[in-house]
Write a sequence for this structure.
């Protein structure tokens, strides 16, 4: 299958899954009965994204297996508010479930560690760490903040740079450039170290700040550039592969603790299945994305990232102090010595 066909398939899967779910789960309860548990699950991702598609599939399967005892309504496209707002709602038990992008760092800094620049080489390496000891450490830190993290992470992929003004060929092209970054200090520090001017906005503001030229550039995986139609407001795509990002499926600790153990087991099972399926979706989406973005008119170039890496020794040293020796040792056990 040609790459463009793969991406088209990924983008159209929502309609397919919706139709399939209607058949498979036709007998599932659609209305709440006395004693039924109703939860909401929030996401900032587009409705046609693999995230929302798989979350709805997960919710349908949970409802079917529990005979309607647990019904989870999925809200995509930021319908419940920004990422920061939804995260706060989960902490206060005002929202039962939420799938987080790069917004957990201000609350729990070590959640940023898998995204440190130029550490992991591919998503498989990241998940090998997150499915094991490093992930256990991060999950414990989130739990202490009132957030239950499901074990299996969701993929977003490796980031590249898009711009509206000029291509990024070397680190010198970043000087003074206004780049939208996620709301975490590590990503801001990285771009400041390289001479750029990072500006933090949550995902629901991304298209807007690029369209109105508040920002000249942004950092995201290729699939998200397609899903959010950033090719409409960005001209250049510079392939940098500078860091990884993913998504974290979470629940309010209070809500999770009140859920009967048999229902917890059902949720865990289908959350794992959804995460593993979504990882495959993202791999297919990103694999064919360059071809699709070229067809949309974007000008694509390879970037020499050697200059990006030169200041990283002092950058890593700063963030080792912030994340702590224990977390850093777990990271280096996976990727080798960084400082």
């Amino acid at each position: 299958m040609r790459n463009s066909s793969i991406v088209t398939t990924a983008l159209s899967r929502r309609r397919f899954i919706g139709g399939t779910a209607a058949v498979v789960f036709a007998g599932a309860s659609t209305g709440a009965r006395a004693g039924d548990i109703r939860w909401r699950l929030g996401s900032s991702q587009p409705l046609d994204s693999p995230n929302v598609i798989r979350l709805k599939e997960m919710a349908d399967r949970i409802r079917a297996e529990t005979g309607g005892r647990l019904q989870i309504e999925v809200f995509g496209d930021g319908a419940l508010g920004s990422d920061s707002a939804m995260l706060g709602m989960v902490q206060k038990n005002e929202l039962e479930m939420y799938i987080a992008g790069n917004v957990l760092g201000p609350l729990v800094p070590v959640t940023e560690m898998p995204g440190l620049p130029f550490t992991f080489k591919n998503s498989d390496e990241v998940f090998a760490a997150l499915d094991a000891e490093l992930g256990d450490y991060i999950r414990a830190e989130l739990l202490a903040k009132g957030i239950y993290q499901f074990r299996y992470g969701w993929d977003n992929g490796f980031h590249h740079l898009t711009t509206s003004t000029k291509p990024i060929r070397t680190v010198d092209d970043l000087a003074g450039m206004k780049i939208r970054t996620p709301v975490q200090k590590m990503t801001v520090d990285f771009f400041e170290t390289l001479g750029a001017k990072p500006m933090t906005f949550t995902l629901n503001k991304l298209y807007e700040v690029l369209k109105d030229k508040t920002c000249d550039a942004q950092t995201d995986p290729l699939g998200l550039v397609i899903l959010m139609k950033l090719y409409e407001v960005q001209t250049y795509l510079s392939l940098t592969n500078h860091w990884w990002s993913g998504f974290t499926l979470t629940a309010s600790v209070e809500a999770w603790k009140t859920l009967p153990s048999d229902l917890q087991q059902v949720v865990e099972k289908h959350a794992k299945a959804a995460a593993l399926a979504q990882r495959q979706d993202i791999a297919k989406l990103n694999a064919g994305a360059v071809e699709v973005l070229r067809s949309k008119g974007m000008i694509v170039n390879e970037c020499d990232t050697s200059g990006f890496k030169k200041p990283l020794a002092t950058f890593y040293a700063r963030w080792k102090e912030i994340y702590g020796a224990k977390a850093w040792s777990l990271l280096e056990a996976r990727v080798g010595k960084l400082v």
